[in-house]
Specification:
This protein is α+β, with helices and mostly antiparallel strands. The protein has one domain: Arc Repressor Mutant, subunit A (Orthogonal Bundle). Helix content is 56%, strand content 15%. It has nine helices and four strands; from the N terminus they run ααβββααβααααα. A four-stranded mixed β-sheet has the order 1-3-2-4, covered by helices on one side. Strand 2 and strand 3 form a beta hairpin. The longest helix is centred in the C-terminal third of the chain and has 18 residues. The protein is globular. The structure holds zinc ion (ZN). Zinc ion binds next to helix 3 and helix 6. Zinc ion (ZN) binds next to helix 3 and helix 6.
Length: 168
């Protein structure tokens, strides 16, 4: 998955640049989705479901649903995750009605292809919310807890990302 990781680092940086959001943290993830014509709705979902993305062929638009009962940092990660499906798997999404994400899907998923896709998309979400250059700029001044707040992510998401970037 190394090539895809590099690709995702470049893609997410480009997306942030295109939207003038590279060093503006926390990333305004709802506005970012809106910029691509994707509406985001908070919805009353089963507590096992974190979110979903669906394609409406009638108006050729995507929409993201996020579980309104999840904590804000979780919702932000879910929206970033669903955007990952949009940027990486648009054609797959267009061929199915709705893509639903359950909590801990990656670890419980048995289909290898789906599992890989979910891993890629989680990588995308971390890279989009915690840009490499943005984190390198501030890391020496803050603790993990402080950086979690600055980037609007959970401390576990922050820790995973810092490990990936070999900064922690
Ligand atoms: Zn997913």
């Amino acid at each position: 998955m190394n090539n895809i990781k590099e690709y995702i680092e470049e893609l997410t940086t480009q997306i942030l640049l295109d939207n003038d959001m590279l060093y503006k943290v926390p990333v305004n993830i709802v506005k970012l989705a809106n910029n691509y014509g994707i509406d985001v709705y908070e919805a009353e979902l089963d507590n096992k479901i974190s979110g979903a993305i669906r394609y409406n062929a009638e108006n050729d638009k995507f929409e993201i649903l996020v579980n309104k009962n999840n904590a804000e940092v979780r919702q932000r990660f879910t929206i970033a995750h669903e955007l990952g499906h949009y940027f990486l798997h648009e054609s797959i999404l267009k061929s199915s009605d709705v893509h639903i994400d359950t909590l801990y899907r990656t670890s419980s998923e048995t289909n290898i292809t789906t599992k890989e896709q979910e891993k890629e998309v989680d990588y995308f979400a971390g890279a989009l919310l915690i840009n490499k250059m943005a984190v390198e700029k501030i890391i020496s001044n803050y603790s993990i807890e402080e950086m979690s707040e600055i980037f609007g992510v959970s401390s576990s998401a922050m820790t995973v990302r810092l490990n990936i970037l070999e900064l922690f």
